[in-house]
Amino acid sequence: MIPSYDDCTLLNLFIISSVCISDAVLKINIIKPEFILKGSCLPVAPVAASMNSSSSAKINSKTKRKRSRENIKQSEPYINMRKLQEAMKQKREENEPKEKELLEKMKTQEKTTKKATESEELNTNTKNKEKNDGKGRSYTLTIALPGSILDNAQAAVLRTYLVGQVARAAVIFNVDEIVVFDERKHSDRNASGGFKADSNHLFGRLLQYLECPQYIRKQLFPRHSDLQYAGVLNPVASPHHMSVGEESIYREGVVHSESSEPGRGSLVDVGLKKKVLVDQTIPSGQRVTVKLNTVRSKTNILKGTAVSFSTPRTEAGIYWGYTVRMADSLSSVITECPYEEGYDTIIGTSDKGTSVDELKLEKFRHALVVFGGLQGLEASLEADAKLTVDNPRYLFHYYLNTCPNQGSRTIRTEEAILITMSALRPKIDLAQR
Whole-structure pTM over 0.85, yes or no? Predict the structure, then answer.
């Protein structure tokens, strides 16, 4: 049976509903109707009182927060932004003169340092120029060796590489002339064929190819079987092997053609962007050494003068590569000397010679250092019909053992060149002082 409620009971139910309000939760608890007597009426005052107490608590908490904020604001110092900006501006104005003065000092110091550096570089360049211009090298150094040393190589590519080793050793020690001589007997020379007959020519051709600057090789060396393995050759990197942008008053070149106007000279390709006009009339295709004019003409034409191959060495002290000479025998190496005075110092190398440590060289004009082949200088002496001496010691001013107490039973010729030139270098410098 469903109970019925009158208006008073309903009012009591509505009033008794207690509202509990917290900061984030609304909770409504309703008293069950079974516990309310029919016809009873509960007082309203307690509920209203509870509601008033909760609202007053909220007001009190808000008031406390507001007062705490006011206390914090009162405790903080008051900042005037306008005065702060004015103070910062005044400080900047005070520091500006100091900053300007410091910048001026730094600029002045930088200019002084730059001038000092430029002056030092100018003095260094002047000293180097005076050193090169005033102290050329008058003496020459020649090495001679038999072409038969290539017979010891097993393949054509190894023979080519062997020549490259000899060429680099010559350039490293400023050798001015390389002589390749034939140490075989005359009868063997006529009867032999194939590679052994052409070993001397192969040697000479590869030496010339390596000495030639790269930018004129194609014009001077056409395709040839001796050059088929030229790609394995290491560059000698001599001072006269220059790039396009490298500056020098001397350059190697090839005569390209005669000038467009008869009698005005020849045009020479020296590896620059423009050809050089020389005063002399020279046949086309010939290699020449050119000394460039330091003063450029108004027409912007490069001009120069054809000079001797030895001029860079004698005038400026610049090593300018080597020349290659072919000799029929050991005696021809000495008798066919290209210098009028001849070789005034001739050195032979052998393990039977005197120790190089005991050598005291005298000042010389043209020195010749001779190396033997696979069987030494004794075999070269025996193969030369023009020589009547039995001991090669009598052919030379000095007969030296440049590697005393050697550990290996044999020293290859390309190794002997490096060993000998290294041992002679300080003695040559001492003799030329």
Answer: no
